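Troubleshooting: if your tokenizer reports a length mismatch, compare your output against this known-good record of 308 residues.
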Amino acid sequence: MPAASLPTGVALEPLLAELRRLSWGAADILLAYGRGEQPPYGFPPALSVDHGGEGPVSAADLAVNQWLLEGLAQAFPEAGWTLLSEETAKQQLTPGQPLDAEWLWILDPLDGTKDFLQGTGEYAVHLALVHRGEPVLGVVLLPVPEELWIGLLGTAESPGRAWCEDRSGAQRPPRFSTRQELGELVLVASRNHRDQRLEQLLAALDLGDTKAIGSVGGKVATILRGETDLYISLSGSSAPKDWDMAAPEAVLRAAGGCFSHADGRPLTYNDGDVRQAGCLIASHGPSHRPLCERAAAAMAVIDPGFAV
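Known-good structure output:
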């Protein structure tokens, strides 16, 4: 296992042990809210809006947010990191100004809200540790299939590693597909976020089959299992945010895959703009460069001036 870069005083194995405990606790919270049952750990049951509450999604979001942020703070009270989540961003962030944080946890307590409501099971929890704008550790929890994906980004001296755990702690490695030709690659796409430009881009790429899955973490998990080969996010002013991308990117790259802008630029975090806009491509790796080149060329025709 690589010696991951971590804040002073934080050891890897105790951190992983705590992340496991907190992740499966978050799974229990979300599963209970999803079934309309009493959630564990003293969290209140969801009330409908008609009864003065904010509905199951808000209740689940807030409970998991509290469970994870308080858990990390209590387990590592001396760690020199800052905690940021989708639920706290409005209070913490000033547009155009990065947080003053060398080490930053970025959390999405419930990625895939529509799927959570619809009962598809295709939702996830994202948690990533970022150092100076670059992920070093990522956790993607899929409660329904009971998969906990963990990725540790490596260094020049020590390669990264990613794996999947179940509740018993049994681990299995990622298994990328062997498909490499663009015409045979399988795309994983959103059901709810597709526009005409994306359809034109996909036509230009002339890929193979397409599979629709909710949550970015869920999409990346299909790449890690070898079911699909790539995911594309195409957006402008309304774009995914840091908490949508940081953990899935960390796990995919730690496994040996790629996640970048179509022009090859890496994704960056805590840079004063939480939007992850542009043409972002995640893939299992072997075909990443030709995918990016073809996508960038296509976007220059589809939407001249679009910053990929």
